Automatic annotation (TrEMBL):
Record localization: Cell membrane
Principal localisation: membrane
Domain of life per record: Bacteria
Record protein name field: Major facilitator superfamily MFS_1
Source species of the chain: Dictyoglomus turgidum (strain DSM 6724 / Z-1310)
Length: 413
């Protein structure tokens, strides 16, 4: 189990990346939690809470597909160094404005948009860069699972730390800590030894972009994964953006409560990530996608109906576990079946659907919460998750036939 769990770390470059991200991701979660608390503290508005999240995520919907075309033309390694450096400066700016008490809501909205633009380049680049860091292609699925494991450890630690830091030092120090944490991943990237890649030179960017979309949507398995991962992301964003409301207004807590609630999601996701990282087989993950959608819905329904902190933590643990299983299995499945010559474009489209659905969910969550309340909004999203699970289950036999045919050709177990 232990040997399987960390096998991708045998690759030097991936080990460096993993180490740097371990620090940087905690900083990112500290900032994310502090940002949502600051917006709600300054405005007491669920709509502005949703709008801020919307602006930080909407660029993925528009820029990610184009990024995929350029990923085959330029060094992914150099692009990551650039994006991580710019993300560090974004966090420094946010901390400076907050610490000097000159922060205004328009600053938060603008800096959220800048964050979204940078992440729309950074996220698909990281997705496509994994295969270049892993020396053994068979370790790709493990590397993807370890990335999620790391992400969710950070989600468990970061928000919890953030909640107490906000109470003790204020939001500005949270933003400063995040800015400094980017140094870890930048240094790791600089120490990597990346082999020169054959860069594709094409005369027509639009033609390449169209070819990527045609490949994705004519491939029935990829098409269904994209549809359902976007729905999963949508529903996850709805409840995530409303967390400050549940922490403050329903559970009658403070920033510490918000941190603990978010940490419970990370705890559930962490268990799921450990399970998937230890799996030696790829076959069977198509079924996990279906079941996890349903259990995520159950978790959301339980959370929406809870007025007790401990029961809310239990419900969020289930929700975090389920959404993590859904996203990692979808990512692993799509990376296992696509061809290498379109990997950059398809993964950018994947990021567009996965992360591009987040701003829509965030905005819908804030808007619905204003009219029908946060509780009813989360309850409705849970019911829709269960319905989606049944729909996917109906299509599963057809999808499994195509998936296993490809697995057999590639020798994947």
């Amino acid at each position: 189990m232990r040997k399987n769990l960390f096998r991708a770390l045998k690759s030097r470059n991936y080990k460096l990346y993993f180490s740097g991200q371990a620090i940087s991701l905690i900083g990112s979660w500290i900032q994310s939690t502090a940002m949502s608390w600051l917006v709600y503290r300054l405005t007491n508005s669920s709509v502005l809470l949703g709008t801020t999240a919307f602006l930080s995520q909407i660029p993925n919907l528009f820029f990610s597909p184009f990024v995929g075309v350029f990923l085959d033309r330029f060094s992914k390694h150099k692009i990551l160094i650039l994006t991580q450096t710019l993300l560090m400066f974004q966090a420094f700016t946010l901390s400076l404005l907050t610490l000097t008490n000159t922060i205004r809501i328009w600053h938060l909205l603008l800096l959220s948009l800048i964050l979204g633009i940078l992440n729309s380049v950074d996220a698909p680049t990281r997705q496509s860069f994994v295969i270049e860091m892993v020396e053994n292609p068979e370790d790709l699925s493990n590397a993807i699972a370890l990335n999620s494991l790391l992400f969710n450890i950070a989600r468990l630690i970061g928000p919890t730390i953030s909640g107490f830091l906000i109470a003790l030092l204020g939001e500005g120090m949270c933003f400063l800590i995040n800015a400094l944490s980017f140094l870890a991943v930048i240094i790791a990237l600089l120490f990597m030894r990346i082999k020169s890649q054959i860069l594709v030179v094409s005369e027509n960017i639009i033609k390449d972009l169209k070819a990527g979309f045609n490949y994705a949507f004519k491939f029935i398995v990829v098409k269904y994964i994209l549809i359902f991962i976007s729905l999963s992301s949508l529903f996850a964003s709805i409840y995530s953006v409303l967390m400050p409301i549940f922490a403050k207004d329903i559970l009658r807590g403070g920033p510490e409560t918000l941190g603990i609630l978010t940490g419970a999601i990370g705890g559930g996701a962490l268990i799921g990530a450990i399970y998937l990282a230890g799996r030696s087989k790829v076959k069977g993950i198509e079924s996990i996608i279906s079941y996890s959608f349903g259990t995520a819905g159950i978790g959301l329904i339980l959370f929406s109906l809870s007025k007790n902190l401990y029961f809310s933590l239990f419900a969020l643990f289930i929700t975090g576990l389920s959404f993590m299983l859904n996203s990692v299995c979808s990512n692993t499945l799509i990376q296992s079946i696509i061809d290498n010559h379109v990997r950059g474009r398809v993964m950018s489209i994947y990021v567009m659907f996965f992360m591009g659905s987040m701003p829509i969910g965030s905005y819908i969550g804030g808007l619905f919460a204003k009219h029908i309340g946060a509780v009813s909004t989360v309850l409705l999203s849970g019911i829709l998750c269960i319905i989606c699970s049944f729909i996917y289950r109906i299509r599963l036999p057809l999808l499994r036939k195509h998936i296993y045919s490809i697995f057999d050709k590639k020798g994947i177990n």
